[in-house]
Amino acid sequence: MPTFTQEPYQAPSTLEKVLKPSLLVPLFLGTLVLYLIYFFTPSSITALIPNPFSKKSTITVLGTGTVKATPDTAQFAITVAATGNDSNQSLSNAKTKVNSLIDSLKNKGLTDSDFQVAAYNATSTPTTDKLIYAAGTTILVTSPDLNLAEDLINTSLSAGARLSIPLTYTVNSVDKVSYEKKARDEAVKNANQKAQNIATAYHKQLGKMIAYTENPSTQGSLSDSSSSSSRPGEIEISQTIQVSFYTK
Q1: Which of 42, 97, 163, 178 has the highest local Cβ count within 10 Å?
Q2: E strand spans, the chain
Q3: CB-based contacts of 192: which residues, under 8 Å, 6+ apart?
Q4: Which residues pair with 246 in a beta bridge?
């Protein structure tokens, strides 16, 4: 005699109740109608409604910030070169010339920390009858006394050096970090304001920041009525950033 087993009853899940075949067609048509309404409604209205059918748009702006500072440091660079019968002799002559020049500049009030000497470079140049060997280097000179700068340059030129970077006025490294931070803060405010203005013009809301790029700071000089043409009364330190935001 055959036997029959009865499977235990399982109630349909909530999802099965909702997604009945008879409901799939109305659900699809309803979604299509919502999309068409969103697509053909003026942007001034749809900007207030989240759009699930489109990717997030972005706004990218450049922000700039500038602060003024009073210079307290003068800088310039000089190149020193010497020749010799061979590479070793030319290198030795160049080092002797550099040490002598640095000693002369120290006598005017500078210290070892005011000099940055680059690596020495030796070259040979053929002529019609022999090789000419030369060696040299570049020295960055920093003076905390602005009034002394031009005298230091004249001393260097008299010793046979060549001016490779003209005289510039700046602030010391510690103060420069502080000024650059202030310029960066101004650049951030500028970028945020620009992005907000663009978002408002397109009836959008500004979302979170998604990208940030910072360019190296720059410095420019300002002249005023109380300063000579070679020594500015103020300098400008500027910072530029590029920022991208999502919109919603």
Answers
A1: 97
A2: 58-69, 73-84, 115-117, 121-126, 131-143, 162-170, 206-214, 218-222, 234-247
A3: 63, 243
A4: 58
Residue that the structure tokens 């209205």 belong to? 45
According to the model, what pLDDT value does residue 227 have?
Answer: 36
| Residue range 171-212, pLDDT digits in tens | 988 899 999 999 999 999 999 999 999 999 999 999 999 999
Q: For the chain, what is the mean pLDDT?
A: 83
Position 128 scores a pLDDT of 79
CA distance 186 to 64: 7
Please name the residue that has the structure tokens 């009858």. 129
152, 108 contact by CB (below 8 A) = yes
Residue 149 structure tokens:
């700068």
pLDDT band at 20 (very low <50, low <70, confident <90, very high): low
CA distance 184 to 63: 9
Which sign, positive or negative, has the C-alpha torsion 11, 14, 15, 21? Answer: positive
Please report the pLDDT score of residue 234 as a whole number.
86
Taking the C-alpha atoms of residue 42 and residue 48, their distance in angstroms, rounded to an integer, is 11
Read off the pLDDT of residues 87-98 as tens digits, 9 standing for 90 and up. Answer: 999 999 999 999
Taking the C-alpha atoms of residue 138 and residue 121, their distance in angstroms, rounded to an integer, is: 10
Asked if 48 and 240 count as a contact pair (C-beta separation under 8 A), the reply is no
